[in-house]
UniProtKB/TrEMBL annotation:
Belongs to the LOR family. SUPFAM superfamilies: ACP-like (SSF47336), Tubby C-terminal domain-like (SSF54518). This is Tubby C-terminal domain-containing protein. One of its GO terms (biological process) is secondary metabolite biosynthetic process. It comes from the Eukaryota. InterPro entries: ACP-like_sf, LOR, LOR_sf, Tubby-like_C. PANTHER family: PTHR31087, TUBBY C 2 FAMILY PROTEIN. Pfam families: LOR (PF04525). Signal peptide: none annotated.
Length: 255
């Protein structure tokens, strides 16, 4: 597929990329006239999976939700947001996950409590303010995680369940507007990609792309992947759910 055969078309692609925090120039488009070539070049620059970049450039964005889905409304955007999540195996600061927007700006900071039986993770905003904690709950048949507010009150539960093909997970919570919400993962965490779907409407609210593994990831057992969040959906909430899914996967795989 050829793209950007003229400067106007190239500028439109640059604008699309900019909305997702991707650094793209008209010269990049004109020197990479096919979508495959441009996506590969931009993937290398942004450290995003090629499939994620192709989805952005090909305008395969997620549709806006009819009503906001949020625990933290300050992280809701009218535009689709692309996040990059990286699990950190060794960290002097204690950070266990690095979660940024595609443009490199920090979304949230996640600090793991290594000596805690609950595996408690403290989540802070980009300025270091405490937002919430992620805690593993015991005495459940299936692996269960809770998201707790700064006062220790559970505001979301993420529970795994066995399915015919792999394991699944469901997050249940009452959103910031008092509405009961259930979000389910379609496609297991072991798959290369998966969707987080609103159980009531059936709409995809986030798409996880795990198709890119660097050599460093393979050596150190890290995971780096992209998450596209639909307009109107809380990006911090989606990031928290991905952390829960990742922790569940690590436990089940014995990491």
């Amino acid at each position: 597929m050829r793209i950007g055969d003229d400067s106007v078309g190239a500028m439109r692609l640059v604008e699309v990329a900019r909305k997702h925090g991707l650094s793209l120039t008209v010269a990049d488009v004109l020197s990479n006239p096919s979508l495959d070539a441009l996506a590969s070049a931009l993937s290398f620059k942004s450290h995003l999976p090629v499939t994620t970049v192709m989805g952005i450039l090909g305008h395969r964005n997620l549709d806006p939700v009819a009503e906001p889905i949020a625990l933290f409304e300050q992280y809701v955007s009218r535009e689709s947001q692309t996040l990059v999540l990286r699990e950190k195996v060794f960290s002097v600061s204690g950070d266990s996950f690095e979660i940024k927007f595609a443009n490199g700006a920090q979304l949230i900071k996640v600090r793991g409590a290594w000596m805690s039986l609950s595996g408690r993770k403290k989540v802070e905003d980009a300025q270091g303010n405490h937002l919430f904690d992620i805690v593993k709950e015991h005495l459940h048949i299936h692996t269960t995680y809770a998201i707790e507010d700064t006062h220790g009150k559970k505001i979301c539960e993420v529970k795994s369940s066995l399915a015919l093909l792999g394991s699944k997970a469901t997050a249940t919570f009452t959103d910031s507007r008092g509405k009961a919400v259930a979000l389910k993962m379609q496609g297991g965490w072991y798959d290369q990609s998966a969707d987080i779907v609103d159980d009531k409407s059936g709409q995809t609210v986030a798409r996880i792309d795990r198709k890119l593994l660097s050599g460093r990831d393979l050596v150190f057992g890290q995971q780096t992947y992209a998450v596209v969040v639909a307009p109107g959906v809380d990006a911090a909430l989606i990031a928290a759910l991905c952390i829960c899914f990742d922790e569940k996967n690590n436990e089940e795989s014995g990491q």
